[in-house]
Amino acid sequence: MTTQVEAQSNYKFKTDSNRLGLWLFIISDAFVFGGLLVSRFFLFAGERPELNQWLGFVVTLILLTSSFFMYRADINISYGNVKGFTRNILITIILGILFLVGVVGLEWPTAPFSVGENAMSSIFFTMTGMHALHVLSGVIFLTIVYRNGKKGLYSRERHFPVEAAAIYWHFVDVVWVFFYPALYLMGRAV
Amino acid sequence: MEDKGNLEEQNNGGYKEDKNIGAAVFLLLIALTIGEFFIGSIAVDWSWPLWGIAILKAALIIYYFMHVTRVFGSSEEGGS
Lengths: 190, 80
Known about the structure:
The complex is a heterodimer. Chain A has helices at about 1-45, 55-80, 80-110, 120-150, 160-185; strands at about 45-50, 190. By secondary structure, chain A is mostly helical. In chain B, α1 (about 1-40) packs antiparallel against α2 (about 45-65).
């Protein structure tokens, strides 16, 4: 009994440390995206690229919806509902892939410039590319968590990897919350 | 046995509450995004309202979805 209590206490301590480490990583990663955002406004304060407005709007809705399902997956495992967790995380993965298809597969080929054509194209492809890379790594992370969930590795008491995947996924969403208006809505289209 | 029943009932209550909070935040995020889209479409020089909406949306996600408060007081069990 004492060993079980000790093991739980040890897990709790590890979880607290891991959580703090994850947030420190998130903050450091936020500086990278912050730098890109500042570069965009420094180079083109009152202008923006002429992009497909509807596509930008739809991919934003897709990413927000994926965040909602990730939240549900997190909540489900917190209450020990493994089936609900795997179902919701699978929907999140599919929506993440759809977002990637929207940005990389549809937006990039139809953008009014090519890679490295001018400063605006550079900042556009760097911002969306860096973000897409994070979405891709998030999808890989979620797939690993989904697979482990299917194997029954997570429970109500022990599920920190799910929480970590959720925090990372929501962070990617927060970045897009700022990138979407910065790239699609603010300034005069040129 | 009775304790177990009460615990399950509490869990179900908490689970439903957490699910409802998530749904409410999600709907608010969608509404703000639609508002953002229309502001961006009609007013070219209105960047401050767009910044305000983006900050509000980010705050909602960080507080409700990312559970930032867990960093200051751990709560592994029982959802948020």
